[in-house]
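Question:
Write out your own:
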Amino acid sequence: MDFNMKKLASDAGIFFTRAVQFTEEKFGQAEKTELDAHFETLLARADSTKNWTERILRQTEVLLQPNPSARVEEFLYEKLDRKVPSRVTNGELLAQYMAEAASELGATTPYGKTLLKVSEAEKRLGAAERDFIHTASVSFLTPLRNFLEGDWKTISKERRLLQNRRLDLDACKARLKKAKAAEAKATLWNDEVDKAEQELRVAQTEFDRQAEVTRLLLEGISSTHVNHLRCLHEFVKSQTTYYAQCYRHMLDLQKQLGSSQGAIFPGTFVGTTEPASPPLSTTSPTTAAATMPVVPTVAGLAAPGEAALCLEEVAPPASGTRKARVLYDYEAADSSELALLADELITVYSLPGMDPDWLIGERGNKKGKVPVTYLELLS
C-alpha cells in the first residue's frame, strides 16, 4: 500500500513538473530543447501522410458506397467485429424492378422483351460492381486502415513519450540552472548542484534514446509510401477491370437492342453523333446515335456475314449520304472494309440488312465497310 501511494505521488509530481515546464515554455519563460531540422522534416512528412491517408480513405469509401447510412452501418459492424451483411447493389435492384415490370406488362411484347434484356445487363453490371467493391476494399481500403489504426498509433504513442522526455530534460536543465545560481550565493548548495547534474544526465540519456526510437519509426514512413503505392496500383487495376466489364456488358446489350430495334423499326439506324471512346476490340464496335437514311437494296449485295459485299456494284444514293469525321485510325480486316485515318472526312450511308454497327464508307474511288464507333456523324 505504501509503495503504491509513493508511486502515485511520484507520478503526480512528474506530471506537475511537466505541466509547469510546458506552461512556462508557452509564455516564453523557459527554454525549450529544439529538435534538429531533419527530425522536424520527418515529423511534418509523417503528419502529411496521416492526413492525406485519412482523406483518401474517406473519399474512397464514399466512391464505393455513396449511401452515408450504409457506410455508418458497415463501420459499426467492423467495430463490433461482425461480418457486414451482403447488400443488393443499385444495379441489381434496378434489374429486379425491370424483370418484375416485364412480367406484369407482358414479357412477350417488344417493351417487355427489351426490359428483360436490359434487366439481365443491369444484373451483370451489379455483380461486377459488387466484385469491384470487394476487391477495392481488400486491396486498397484495408491497408490504409491498417496504417491509421496500427502504425500511426504506434508513431503517435512514441511521439508523446518523446515530448514527455523533452519536458523532463528541460525541467532538469532549469533546476540545474537555479542550483548553480544559488551555489554562487552560498556553498550549502553543492549537493543540490550534484543532484541536478545527475538528474540532467539521466534525462538526457532517456531523451536521446526516445528520440532515436521515434526517428526510426518516422523514417519507416517511406516503407509505408511504398506499400500504399502498391495498393494504389491494385486499386487502379480493379477499377480498370470493373469498367472494362461494364463496357463489354453494355456493348453486348446495345448489339442485342440494335438487332431487335431493326425488327421493330425497319429502315432506321440508331446511334449518337457524339464522339465515342475507342472500342476495346476492333471486331465489336458499338453504334453511334443518329438517324441514317436507307438507300434501296442493290442487286447482288448481301448482308454482312452472309456473303461478301459486291463493292463494285454499290453506288451511293442520290440523296441520303452523310459526311463523317474519323475519330481513330482503323486497319481494315479484309478487302470488304475501308481503312481509316484519324481526322479525315469520308462519305457514309447505310444499306438494308446491314449490321447496325457498320456503314458503307467512301473516300475518293475507294469504298468499304467502316465501324460506326470510329466515326463522328456530321450534320
About this structure: The first strand starts at residue 322 and ends at 326. The chain is about 60% helix and 5% strand. The chain has a mean pLDDT of 80.
